């Protein structure tokens, strides 16, 4: 049998994640998404736990037709009867009965002997079988149990009617080779094992839930229990998206297929994250925000040339529209050029060099350089006139008690270094006054506006100004993450235009404006 059954327990073990409680509507919405995703079994809840969970399982069982709907029950009559009450309208109901098999659980929690556990398990599986044919049994804490006892327990519950035997690594303790050995041992030592499907249910306390599940598949397990985004009790369960994508990415190693419509993985992950309120960490495999984003120059260069150089999965196969190149301080010229082309810019080599230098400077100040940043940066480069004066340094002191003071250093004609300082009514006024002392061209500021171009605390602020001199108006723009620097750049831009017009006699518009 080469079909690997995907048993989704997002709505049962997933909901056991501290803080992830879901209401009935949310559980129904997620159940519909899981059905569309193509899971084989939905464990909808643990009906005895609360009237709300009972109702959620009942409504999911009544509505979902595309997969088996399962409810959990302890090995006691009350839980099993309640589970059946909730599940009976399901097209294909499954009751999942569990009881602990490890010494530590049997002695300290259940306070029962092996014999008592074995006979309870057999009797309760038989009771569940009286309700429906599809019965799963789990020896809880199997990975810390005596294998000989597990074999005996499994043999007994198969005889009592269990059709799926789920082997849980309840506390995420097993190592892959050990867990694989346990599965192999079950195949070799349970005489009636051919009458049941072996399933695994692994927790992530040591970050090994997916590795253990995959190893079990290699040794013959044909059902994996998992949750969307890996949510679940404590550190969570094996993540559905990781198990499914590992199998589909490495068909050379796993001779099984699943029914999952992988293109719905990402939207389902988003839905579960939104409804549980659990954000997905950016570096999460398959569904994290960074899973298909490349940030370093060498990787970006490779992906531009051939995506397979650094991508083992096509993002579209999991429902992510495309991979992306994140521009930041680690990006190289290839990625920057590619993004410029995507944004419609075709710069000359010289303009490109200047824009790339400005980009690197900005990237040192910002975590991520966005498309809006790049547009503003290129616009800045393109509108730069030949500068008579270049702003080299700027230092400002201001605050509610201090007197706004600005010191500026300009590089003037012939490379001459010019420095001065001034006081002002505010920091921008102080900067403009200091620049005026050095450039010495009388003008009047007629317009000043500031806009945030990009989002976030490290956003670029763009300043637009107009100055007027001898009846002609000149505009200037400046962009920077520091708005005082943007203001100074805008002023220098307007002054340099004014000086260029005066030197070259550039034509004015009929209104006397130089845009
Ligand atoms: C590994 C897992 O994920 S197991 C599933 C965990 N999920 C949950 O616990 C769901 C939420 N739980 C609940 O709402 C409640 O704990 C309930 C309704 C299940 C039980 O509530 P209560 O009856 O008040 O019992 P409480 O939770 O305090 O203790 C658990 C009892 O179940 C017993 N028990 C635990 N597992 C099993 C089992 N598989 N079969 C039979 N009895 C069991 C314990 O020994 C204890 O019995 P005791 O009262 O005789 O000492
Ligand atoms: C109920 C069982 C299967 C469980 O969740 C576990 O053992 O982790
Ligand atoms: Mg569990």
Automatic annotation (TrEMBL):
Q: Where is this region: Regulatory domain?
A: 390-515
Give the E.C. number(s). Answer: 2.3.3.13
Residue numbers binding Mn(2+)? 13, 201, 203, 237
Reply yes or no: does the keyword Hydrolase apply.
no
Q: Which GO terms describe its molecular function?
A: 2-isopropylmalate synthase activity; acetyl-CoA C-acetyltransferase activity; manganese ion binding
Q: Biological process (GO) annotations?
A: L-leucine biosynthetic process
Where does the Pyruvate carboxyltransferase domain lie?
Answer: 4-266
Q: Which UniProt keywords apply?
A: Acyltransferase, Amino-acid biosynthesis, Branched-chain amino acid biosynthesis, Cytoplasm, Leucine biosynthesis, Manganese, Metal-binding, Transferase
What's an example GO cellular component term for this entry? cytoplasm
Cofactor names? Mn(2+)
- Catalytic reaction annotation: 3-methyl-2-oxobutanoate + acetyl-CoA + H2O = (2S)-2-isopropylmalate + CoA + H(+)
What family, per the record? Belongs to the alpha-IPM synthase/homocitrate synthase family. LeuA type 1 subfamily.
HAMAP family, from UniProt?
LeuA_type1 (MF_01025)
What does the record note on quaternary structure?
Answer: Homodimer.
Q: What does this protein do?
A: Catalyzes the condensation of the acetyl group of acetyl-CoA with 3-methyl-2-oxobutanoate (2-ketoisovalerate) to form 3-carboxy-3-hydroxy-4-methylpentanoate (2-isopropylmalate).
What this protein is called in its record is: 2-isopropylmalate synthase
């Amino acid at each position: 049998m080469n079909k690997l059954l995907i048993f989704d327990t997002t709505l049962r073990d997933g909901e056991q994640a501290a803080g992830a409680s879901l209401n009935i509507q949310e559980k129904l919405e997620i159940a519909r998404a899981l059905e569309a995703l193509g899971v084989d079994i939905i464990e909808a809840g643990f009906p005895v736990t609360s009237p709300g969970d009972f109702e959620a399982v009942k409504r999911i069982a009544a509505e979902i037709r595309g997969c088996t709907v399962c409810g959990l029950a302890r090995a006691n009559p009350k839980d099993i009867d309640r589970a059946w009450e909730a599940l009976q309208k399901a097209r294909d109901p499954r009751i999942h009965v569990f009881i602990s098999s490890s010494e530590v659980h049997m002695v300290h929690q259940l306070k029962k002997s092996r014999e008592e556990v074995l006979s309870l398990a057999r009797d309760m599986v038989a009771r569940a079988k009286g309700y429906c044919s599809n019965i799963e049994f789990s020896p809880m804490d199997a990975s810390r149990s005596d294998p000989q006892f597990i074999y005996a327990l499994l043999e007994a519950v198969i005889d009592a009617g269990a059709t799926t035997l789920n082997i849980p690594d309840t506390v995420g303790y097993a190592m892959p080779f050990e867990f694989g050995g346990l599965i192999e041992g079950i195949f070799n030592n349970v005489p009636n094992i051919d009458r049941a499907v072996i399933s695994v249910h692994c927790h992530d306390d040591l970050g090994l839930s997916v590795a253990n599940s995959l190893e079990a598949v290699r040794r013959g397990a044909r059902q994996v229990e998992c949750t969307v985004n890996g949510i679940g009790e404590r550190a969570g369960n094996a993540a559905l998206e990781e198990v499914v994508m590992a199998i589909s990415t490495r068909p050379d190693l796993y001779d099984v297929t699943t029914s999952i419509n992988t293109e719905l993985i990402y939207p389902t992950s988003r839905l579960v994250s939104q409804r549980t309120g659990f954000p997905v960490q950016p570096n999460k495999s398959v569904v994290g925000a960074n899973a298909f984003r490349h940030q370093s120059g060498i990787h970006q260069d490779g992906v531009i040339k051939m995506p397979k150089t650094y991508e083992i999965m096509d993002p579209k196969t999991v429902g992510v529209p495309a991979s992306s190149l994140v521009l930041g301080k680690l990006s190289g010229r290839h990625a920057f050029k590619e993004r410029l082309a995507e944004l419609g810019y075709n710069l000359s080599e010289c303009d490109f060099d200047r824009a790339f230098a400005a980009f690197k400077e900005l990237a040192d100040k910002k975590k991520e350089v966005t498309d809006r940043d790049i547009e503003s940066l290129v616009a800045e480069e393109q509108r730069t006139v030949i500068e008579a004066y270049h702003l080299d340094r700027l230092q400002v002191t201001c605050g509610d008690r201090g007197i706004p003071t600005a010191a500026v250093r300009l590089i003037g004609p012939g490379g001459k270094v010019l420095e001065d300082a001034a006081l002002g009514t505010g920091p921008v006024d102080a900067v403009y006054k200091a620049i005026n002392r050095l450039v010495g061209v009388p003008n009047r500021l007629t317009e000043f506006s500031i806009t945030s171009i990009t989002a976030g605390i490290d956003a670029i602020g763009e300043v637009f100004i107009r100055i007027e001199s001898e009846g002609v108006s000149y505009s200037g723009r400046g962009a920077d993450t520091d708005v005082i620097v943007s203001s100074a750049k805008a002023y220098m831009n307007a002054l340099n235009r004014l000086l260029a017009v005066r030197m070259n006699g550039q034509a004015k518009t009929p209104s006397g404006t130089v845009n």
